[in-house]
Write a structure and sequence with these properties.
alpha+beta; 2 domains; 5-stranded mixed sheet; 3-stranded mixed sheet; globular; binds zinc ion; HNH endonuclease
């Protein structure tokens, strides 16, 4: 019978270099797996590329590894990385064809990799961070919920009628795109984005697809289009801002296992009766987020809010149609 028992490191806060991140087995310090797949590091020359960690320390993409037993590394991580690598070779179509649950696991592994690195550091008595995430009960509850569905990477699991996350996939126009690789994640809101060549993925990790539904119009508008990098920045701002005001945490429950079962079935519940799903949208907060994303183009909040009712957009024109853009023309020309 398949081993369908879930591991929960949050129960006893088992975060150390001697514990496999995925199954909890005790391991040696040498047993680790890269957070960013080797193939990706090679293809985009990431080994020595700098990466800012949560505690503001600087690491490199190549250095970031997490404790992982050989069994999990060989049987769960490597096949996943191979599958995603093969999909990326087919460009945006390959990514769209990829099973959503696999894509969730792949993004989830990178997100969790940076999170677990922080949790391991915080568990070290010699390090006392200013704002430890491990002492924030609300965040821990969120991480724990997320970890339960991330276990699908190891334990055969079927999500009954949901995908835990929202995934936006877009194709980038090469004309003014000079960044072959781009990566961003936000620990608290669980928003994530990665760009590999011409394919960009923006994801919110623990919303059961609600943000994708809420931004359905935006998603339909960009499908089949080639986005200018500034348009991708705006998509990111909209999705990251939605994650910022998203205010519920889905809970997950595994159904009782019967003899002979070869997978778990996971059900979910979102309490949208006592809680509003989204906090109110605040234009200045959104403008601030957009300003952050538009930094490379030096566009300021006052530019964005020139018409306070209709913030600056590079994606959608006044009639609600997609704005085709190959070259960016400065808004101050
Ligand atoms: Zn393991």
């Amino acid at each position: 019978m398949a081993n369908l028992k879930l591991y929960d490191p949050f129960e006893k806060m088992q975060f150390s270099d001697a514990t496999c991140f995925l199954c909890g087995t005790t391991i040696t310090k040498e047993q680790r797996t890269p957070v960013f797949g080797e193939w990706m590091q090679q293809k985009y020359q990431l080994k020595n590329k700098e990466l800012l960690l949560l505690d503001k320390s600087v690491s490199t993409f190549g250095e970031l590894t997490i404790p992982c037993c050989d069994h999990c590394h060989l049987n769960h991580i490597i096949p996943l990385e191979k599958e995603v690598e093969a999909a990326t070779e087919k460009g945006v179509a390959g990514m769209q064809e990829l099973n959503e649950q696999r894509l969730f696991q792949w993004i989830g592994k990178m997100y969790y990799g940076t999170l677990v690195t922080e949790l391991i550091k915080e568990a070290d008595p010699l390090i006392s961070p200013e704002y430890p995430v491990s002492e924030d009960p609300k965040m821990l509850g969120k991480f724990r919920s997320f970890y339960k569905v991330l276990q699908s990477l190891r334990v055969p699991m079927v999500f009954s009628d949901f995908v835990p996350c929202s995934i936006f996939i877009a194709e980038i126009n090469p004309t003014e795109d000079d960044l072959p690789f781009e990566y961003q994640d936000e620990l608290t809101t669980m928003a994530f984005s990665i760009k590999l060549g011409s394919v960009a993925i923006v994801c919110t990790l623990l919303d059961n697809g609600i943000i994708l539904k809420a931004l359905g119009r935006l998603n339909r508008l960009v499908q089949g289009q080639q986005l200018h990098p500034i348009q991708l920045a705006e998509v990111k701002a909209r999705v990251f801002y939605a994650a910022y005001i998203f205010s519920v945490v889905p809970e997950y429950f595994e159904r009782a296992v019967k003899p002979g079962d070869d997978h778990l079935i996971m059900d979910t519940l979102i309490d949208d009766v006592t809680n509003e799903v989204f906090n109110p949208w605040e234009m200045t907060a959104y403008a601030h987020m957009l300003e952050e994303m538009l930094k490379p183009w030096s566009i300021r909040e006052e530019d964005i809010l020139q018409n306070p009712k209709q913030p600056l957009s590079f994606l959608i024109d006044e009639d609600g149609n997609f704005m085709r853009m190959e070259k960016y023309q400065s808004i101050r020309s």
